[in-house]
Each structure stands twice: as structure tokens, then as C-alpha cells.
Fold this protein.
Amino acid sequence: MISVIICTYNRERYISEVLQSLSLTSYKDFEVILIDNNSTDSTQKKVYDFKGKHPDFPLKYFLEKTQGLSWARNRGIKEASGDILAFIDDDATVRPDFLENLSKEMDSHPQAQAFGGKIIPFFDDCPPPKWLCRFSMGWVSALDMGKTVCDFRDRKFPIGANMGFRREVLQSCGEFNPMLGRNGGNLMGGEEKDLFNRIKKAGYSILYFPDVVVEHHIPQSRTTLKYVKEFAHGVGLSERLRSKYENSYPLRLLEEVLKWVATLLLFFFYAIIGRPTCAATLVLFRAFVTRALLTGK
């Protein structure tokens, strides 16, 4: 069985659409575990309205009172019955063949203990921002590694809007670190990278499945420079916390120096080809990451 785990917090705008997309699948051996992490809007009502209209849909709703995305994800793992655990975001809709393709890929690649799928950004109320480029796709949780199945090598790892695990690898490597990850409305992270690093260090394979696809809704608020600054600040704080927890902080500082070299090269490249907004925003992002990484503020 595949357990699709959705952790939600104040996502009344999208949650019905997310559930509706899962209801269109022809695949039968699955369940949906929805973990509400103390939403204060009408998210719960939207979920119960959906359940009322779709009584045969295999949806289980739970309230996780301890605030934090890692706590919610770990609660989802606890409540799930499946041997394959697929996580999607509460603003990501799946393709109709999502579950069928995932099942086929996991059967065809028994070595895969974890996976990530393609994430296509869908801009709701606005065009893509001028700063968007190949190197800033991650800021909107987009992921496209090509048309063939491949490994997440080196420092690459799946993104939480479309990722998953075999249950046994979590039993072996542990779950999400509650010290890391988003909490309420902040933009902290690091819990995914921490877990995937543990999986890689244990020698397990993490594969990219190009035909396991979600569309990730991006509101206008996530295209502003204000968001870029807040997101970069969250990345820096998370990396500081994660690397100190892993006793790799000096190495992470060295990595930041290398990232600055790459950022400056990209700045000149995009400036030369006539994309000054992209060039400047890459530098802005790196500056806010570095400040938070160094100061913890």
C-alpha cells in the first residue's frame, strides 16, 4: 500500500484541490493521511466537506497539536499503514497517474529506499518572477532532473513537495528531526536535507522518478523580493542549526565561500546576457543566507 501523507497548516485555499487531484487516480491500493498542524483558518472544514462529498475516498484526518512541520510529518509516518510513504505539500496537486507511476517505479527499482519526483511550479495570480532562472528554481520548490530515472548524487536531494520513502529506511535511519523545519508561518527548513543525508551515509539509494509529477501552486506573495529575503534568512538559520547539529559547521562555512564564488560568476553571466534582476537577486539571496548562517539572526 502507498500512504500519501499531507501535512497542512492554514491552507484553506488549496487543500480541497489537492484532495480532489488524488481522488481522480485509478490506482486503488492507497490511503491519504492528512495531518493538520493547528490550522486556524477553515482548513478543517474544507477537509470534512470533502469527506462528506467523497465518503469512499480513503482519507484519514488527524490533528497534531505540537507545532512544527517535522512533528506533523513524523505523526503522519506513525499513522500511516503503507510500506511506501509518499509526502506531498498541501498546495501541490498530483497528476492522475501519480500513484500508478510511483507504484511501477518502486517495483521496477527495488534498490530505491527513497525517491523524489518532478515538481512543476504553477503561478496562480501572476507571471513567473523576473528573478526566476535555473539556479533559483528551488526557491519555488521546483525540480526537474530530466526524462530518465537517476540517482540524487552528491549534494542533491528530493524536495518535500514530492518525496517519499520505503518504511524500512525510516526505521533504519530515523525520522525527521523536530529541531529542524518550518514552525507555524516561519520559513525554516533543513529537516529534509538532514534526513536524506542520513540515508545517503547509510548507503541507501535515492532515485529521481520523472513520471511521478506534481504541480506546485505558487501565489504572488512567493514571487516578491520580500519573500526571497525571508526565504534566504530561513535557509541560513536552518543551515546553521543543521550543520552544528551534525558537527559540520566549519565545512558548511567553507561551502558558503564556494557558493559565493559561484554566485558572483552567475551575477556577471546574467548581467551580461541582459537579466539584471536575476543577477542582483542571486546576490541578494546569498547575502541573506550568509548573514543568518554567520550570526544566527
Remarks:
- The two ends are 43 Å apart (CA to CA).
- The CA atoms of residues 263 and 283 lie 6 Å apart.
- Residues 249-272 form the longest helix (24 residues).
